[in-house]
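Q: For a teaching session next week I want to show students how multiple molecules come together into a single three-dimensional assembly. I've collected the sequence lines for a complex. Could you give me the predicted structure tokens for the whole thing so I can convert them for display?
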Amino acid sequence: MTELDTATALWWAVVASGIYHGINPGMGWPLAVSAALMEKRSGYLYRALASLSFGHLLAMAAILFPFSTLFFLVEWQRHIQYGAALLVVSLGVYLLLNRRHPRFLARIHPSRLALWSFLAAMAHGAGLMLVPIYLGICKTAETDAGHAAAQTLMSGTFAVAMAVALSHTLAMTLSGGAAAVGVYHWLGLKFLSRSWLNLDLVWALSLILVGVAALLAIH
Amino acid sequence: MNIRPDPTFHATPKLAMEAPPETLAFTMMLSPDGSEPDGLAVVDVNPESSTYSQIVHKLLMPNKGDEFHHFGWNACSSALSPLAGHAFLERRYLIVPGIRSSRIYIIDVKEPLNAKIHKIVEPEELFAKTGYSRPHTTHCGPEGIYVSTLGGSGEDGTDGPPGIFIMDCETFEILGRYEMDRGEQDKHYDFWWNLPRDYMVSSEWGLPPQFENGVVPEDLLSNKYGHKIHFWNLRERRNVQTIDLGANHQMALEIRPAHDPASNHGFCGVVVDTTNLQGAIFTWWRNSDGKFEARKTITIDPQPANADDLPDLLKGFGAVPPLVTDIDLSLDDRFLYVACWGIGEMHQYDVSDPLNPKLAGKVEIGGIVKQAGHPNGKAFGYGPQMVEISRDGKRVYWTNSLYSTWDDQFYPGERGGAMVMANAGENGGLSLDEDFFVEYPKGYRSHQIRLEGGDCSTDSFCYPSV
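A: Of course. Below is the structure for the complete assembly, covering every listed component.
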């Protein structure tokens, strides 16, 4: 595969994971439906979606930016990539073995959706899943640029992190928003209990998959 | 864990009403003198079945003297909120506390006719982890299973206040006390909540010495039983407001919030007003500024009686008090059922306007003085007590025992445990069903009823009906 193809594939992975996070009711879109029904105004649906998205975006940024700083250490790049991939695999294995949901999430006030969304994304490793993909993109970008000055490289990785977090969250918002709007206006809440699938296992496996794929790619 | 949410979980009360009707009921059997083990009785409530109106399975406990009372499910429709984080629990286990022994049984009813004990939490574990005793009401909520208790620690349960504790919803391990700031709450009975609005309401009966050996007349006449309701910030676990209903309103028991979470009101039943022997219902509500208010909206008068017809406890009064011991609200929040255990009546109120309830139907059965029989000709001992409504609101079931030692004071002698059912009209009206009458095994009394797949006092809904 050429660098360009790899980059395209990785960007698609960013978007696909966003759609996946968004469509999963566990990540919050039913709360937007609930908010609109509770207040009897559809505006609250969009307001709630915005809060959920903001929390998710923060969670992505909180994970990606530290890595973008680390990536500035050019001679350690490979190690960082390995480390990140192993981290994602271990989280996947942990979630595979421990299927319990963190109880502290249930303590958050129902109106603090941004906080809830942030913590839910952190607790389930939604941001971490993006790290190997993000690092892969940085790598291809860097090859394009050749040996750029450290300053340029750093601002480049920051920009990429921002772009990854934004496009992922946009995909997440659009897919979750579509589900919420669909249920609110047309499908009805019966759709919620009918369509909600237990993705715990799939989620854990997809973390492992991303990590392993990254390990193979670095090799 | 399921792959899809349990089919008995419903996002809204309306969807729950549209679900298939119940075919089985789970009820408590209790041995009033503790001579036999208490148990679970599974009742066939499917009119198409050949064993309709019969106990089709009994599960007896390995201990005696537990005194079964209220019980609940391990999981309900509240799991459908992403905030709860456990959407894929099965509605499979009944959490059955013994209010005398403080022992808790977890009963697996996945195969109802082969129900078995899944786990037993011994009293010592409850005492050690919570400092509470005499567990009572259970509800499944955001942090797991919440159980209210009637006693604190110590031999007679008066060493420290009673409260609520939380159990893990998968392992049934006791996690600890719920309260972080209980305010002036020092007695406990029932509790329920509005999950999206994040508030809880709790009520008060009395401390263990006030009920375990029977009602204490001096305490009642000096207004020493509970008469306050407490409002809590549910997730902050903080008492934010206490409303005193007035000291004469003795024993504020069942709390029934509107099922539709968009509504901000609910009801509370008061057993007896010591100034006039009336039974009462208070409507409570939350204002837009977050403050709660409560107002008495239903009163039920005592009925004059000859002293000869009254038990010793009531002889001096020349009247029989209604004794409002249980209330239940239909899933459409339209009809409130009020059990008048003393006078032997089940009232049905239209509460479409929660501040102006209207009596819509009434059934007379049992009663201290009236002792009204069932339309099928059989005698009905005691009076209408624990009431449960089918999800669709069409059938109303009830049993007849209040609490072992209190039964004996108000209704001396063994009168037989029974369960009956009444059909409710679409726009009100209530009539006993001639074909439904469950007699409990000799020596056993009957208490709370839980319907297969949920009923009107278990599930908490996180989405408003549309």
